[in-house]
Amino acid sequence: MSITIDEHSGFCFGVTSAINKAEEELAKGPLYCLGDIVHNGQEVDRLERLGLTTIDYDDLRTLHGGRVLLRAHGEPPSTYAIARANNIEVIDASCPVVLHLQKRIRDTYLAHPEAQIVIFGKVGHAEVIGLMGQTNNNAIIVESEADLSKIDFTRDIYLFSQTTMSVEAFEALVENIKNKISYSPQDGPTAEGGRTAPAVVQAKPVFEYYNSICRNVANRVAQLQAFARAHDLVIFVGGSKSSNAKVLYNHCLAANPNTIFISSPDELDEHTASRSTDLSVGICGATSTPHWLMEAVKEKISNLKCQI
Ligand code: SF4
User: Fold this and answer.
1) What CATH number does the domain located at 98-162+167-189+199-209 have?
2) N or C: which end of the chain has fewer CB within 10 A?
3) What per-residue confidence (pLDDT) applies to 49?
4) At the top level of CATH, which class does the domain 13-94 belong to?
5) What is the dihedral of CA 37, 39, 44, 45, to 10 degrees?
6) Is 190 in contact with 197 (CB distance < 8 Å)?
């Protein structure tokens, strides 16, 4: 039996640099982090043992002074406003890819105040909250096809995506919106009472879309699927709160149905170990999965196999 850790899995550069910044700042003194620094409970626990205190928005509003690290997901303008008002020093670890997307959304919103800004993303996700803030919370969030009813297809649409969504799902959404615009009434002529009404000459709405899915995530799909196909049993390690982990796990599962999802080595048992007898086992993870955790999974499965 062989056990291999996927060399492409693990932190993306945005998360790596946020964690490096946290470790650097913790060496200087107490540090707060607004929200979990990464969607991985094990890594959060490790940094909290080094002195990091995780706070939420309610804590931020009541905090005065101190230093607060903003994680890679980015924040809405209101967070910076609270920090200024409360004399809080901001240690900004927002990922440059997210900051670029925030600026693009803000510029589009300001340039086209009559248009609809649509964000393909998860309601309540930290990055989406930061993106919504660039439009004064006026953007429309589309998470699934059911949310398309929130869009007026006779008006201009500018579509963006949360950086960790699936490229295929984004492309399907673009096609769906194009179809809905094609069938909207401005196409005229329309049939009324058995007669054809005169065509209403009306310009088609603008539909512009910007594939803002992070290349780190998009490129990982093909690499992960090749890795999953090359192993008999795949153990995907990811945080239960990570949307990136869910997307990547589903891609692994599509490539190899013999894929299991775990968040910690404690979830491995003898049953899993017995499934891996004489098999090649691949261990992989999300952009929020620390390398040390995948090593711990490898050690646990090796130990379990020695016992059976
Ligand atoms: S997935 Fe991409 S956008 Fe998100 S933190 Fe990582 S590098 Fe930045």
Assistant:
1) 3.40.1010.20
2) C
3) 95
4) alpha beta
5) 160
6) yes
